[in-house]
Amino acid sequence: DAALKLTGISKTYNLGRPNEVQVLRGVDLEVAKGEIVALVAPSGAGKSTLLHIAGLLDTADHGQVQIAGQDMTGLHDRRRTRIRRNDVGFIYQFHHLLPEFTALENIVLPQLANGAARKAAEARARDLLETVGIASRADHRPAALSGGEQQRVAFCRALANTPRLLLADEPTGNLDPATSDQVFAALMELVRGSGLSALIATHNLELAARMDRQIRLDAGKMTTA
Ligand code: ADP
Ligand code: ADP
């Protein structure tokens, strides 16, 4: 089974109103198991909308979302929420870390919420921080970290509960070019090291070229790059 399969996804905002925007017009896409796919499109093309639908944060008007072979259409809300929390990791352009907790705690908390034991959760958090090269920052709060470090912590948090699928929306879009390059390399290290499947939106063509495959969102439809 594919890690993610979208079939005929359509989405219109302001449905039925005069100024409605049809953002997605029958999008088909597939991310194979272990594959890292770049979603390339200019700003406003609908990347965030597509990622939110794929990550069960929003619903499509038409079409089907399958995660690891399971159809998400018509699932009970509680089951949908569980899949969103356990099987999907989400990374935004901004880190959204909890400011009053340390880097380590930000990675530990989602594991505790998921029923993990504290000792095991801390060990996993330290492993993840080590993989992205900031083990020495474990006890710092977000405000004491650089933008690149904050984003690395956010990557670790997204992987904390070992999701099957990672969705990232311009994960290095807030960083200067040199930092962006290094932080992106850290993300690739994390994703490849865990054998995770990923769909990563970027408008940076150099970063896109480092992934396994590129797909383009153009006028609400997918085209191969
Ligand atoms: P991208 O992530 O590629 O920049 P988005 O998915 O954020 O694109 O937005 C695609 C289009 O949909 C844009 O024209 C945006 O203004 C519009 N849009 C996004 N969210 C909403 C919303 N909640 N209501 C109305 N229009 C929206
Ligand atoms: P709104 O107040 O506009 O309804 P929300 O507070 O639901 O928006 O969500 C704010 C942002 O956080 C949105 O981009 C949404 O997609 C995202 N989001 C909502 N729930 C989650 C979640 N459980 N995990 C990750 N992101 C989420």
Automatic annotation (TrEMBL):
A single Gene Ontology CC term: membrane protein complex
An example Gene Ontology molecular-function term: ATP binding
Example of a GO biological process term: lipoprotein localization to outer membrane
InterPro entries (UniProt xref): AAA+_ATPase, ABC_transporter-like_ATP-bd, ABC_transporter-like_CS, ABC_transpr_LolD-like, MacB-like_ATP-bd, P-loop_NTPase
Pfam families cross-referenced by the UniProt entry: ABC_tran
Gene3D superfamilies (alphabetical): P-loop containing nucleotide triphosphate hydrolases
Domain (ABC transporter) ranges: 4-225
SMART domains for this protein: AAA
Annotated keywords: ATP-binding, Cell inner membrane, Cell membrane, Membrane, Nucleotide-binding, Transport
UniProt superkingdom: Bacteria
Keyword presence, Transport: yes
PANTHER family: IMPORT ATP-BINDING PROTEIN, LIPOPROTEIN-RELEASING SYSTEM ATP-BINDING PROTEIN LOLD
Family note: Belongs to the ABC transporter superfamily. Macrolide exporter (TC 3.A.1.122) family.
Protein name: ATP-binding cassette domain-containing protein
Species for this entry: Sulfitobacter sediminilitoris
Organism phylogeny: Bacteria, Pseudomonadati, Pseudomonadota, Alphaproteobacteria, Rhodobacterales
